[in-house]
Amino acid sequence: MVLARSFYERDSRTVAPELLNKVLRAGRRSGRVVEVEAYAGSDDPASHAYRGPTKRNRVMFGPPGHLYVYFTYGMHWCANAVCGSEGVAHAVLLRALSPLTGLEEMRTARPRARRDRDLCSGPAKLCQSMGLDGSSDGADLVSGDRGVVLVDDGTPPPDRPGRSVRIGISTGNEQLWRWFVEEDPNLSRPDRSR
């Protein structure tokens, strides 16, 4: 079942751990969410929304349940699920998936991946494997207007997910706002629980 808009209409720190084990579908490709990070809008110095709305981050300030996709380091795309109330700009970064379907398409999209566990083991790899880029920015995850949805297939989130500081940020890095399925081989980094 596609996640309802109400699922996203909450604080990103509530939504993030509940996204674990949900399924991201993009066309014929899909993967189980195994790692996420929460970003808390203008209250979070690591958030793209910290300094207010811009052309780049405008989707974050829009209605919840949309995909915010941004370009980073001049070469990579990263995807987030927008959460909270409109104007609040909370988001959950999708850091890693366990590939489920469309593996041939994923392998074609990431020919340098030597193992299937390397296909979606990081936010940029995830986007490349799933075919998400700037054209996906603003996609409605509830209506599936661009073929991208998040689905609950009945697999519950872990009772006690791994938790750590967020990865690859220089400010706001003391918060334990990264959640993951412990010991999953598709994680972007080995378990760094605290």
Structure summarized in a few sentences:
By secondary structure, this protein is an alpha+beta fold. Helices cover 14% and strands 27% of the residues. Strands 1, 2, 3, 4, 5, 6, 7 and 8 form an 8-stranded antiparallel β-sheet that branches.
Task: Characterise this structure.
The protein has 194 residues and is of the alpha+beta class. It has a single domain (5-180), classed as Roll (3-methyladenine DNA Glycosylase, Chain A). The chain has helices at 5-8, 12-19, 103-109, 123-130; strands at 23-26, 29-40, 67-72, 76-83, 90-101, 148-151, 162-164, 178-180. Strands 1, 2, 3, 4, 5, 6, 7 and 8 form an eight-stranded antiparallel beta sheet that branches. A hairpin with a 6-residue loop joins strand 4 and strand 5 (90-101). The longest helix is centred in the N-terminal third of the chain and has 8 residues, at 12-19.
Keywords:
eight-stranded antiparallel beta sheet; 27% strand; alpha+beta; 194 residues; 4 helices; 3-methyladenine DNA Glycosylase, Chain A; single chain
- Helix and strand element order: HHEEEEEHHEEE
CATH architecture label: Roll
Query: Cα-atom Rg, whole angstroms?
Result: 15 Å
What top-tier CATH class fits best?
Alpha Beta
Q: Tally of extended strands?
A: 8
Global mean pLDDT: 94
Main sheet record: 8 strands, antiparallel
**Unreliable segments (pLDDT under 50, ≥5 consecutive)?**
none
Please give the domain count. 1
Helical coverage, percent range: 10-25%
**Beta-strand proportion:** 25-35%
Q: Span between N and C termini?
A: 33 Å
Q: Indicate the structural class.
A: alpha+beta
Shape: globular
> Any idea of the CATH topology?
3-methyladenine DNA Glycosylase, Chain A
Kindly report the name of the CATH homologous superfamily.
Answer: Methylpurine-DNA glycosylase (MPG)
Tally of contiguous helical segments: 4
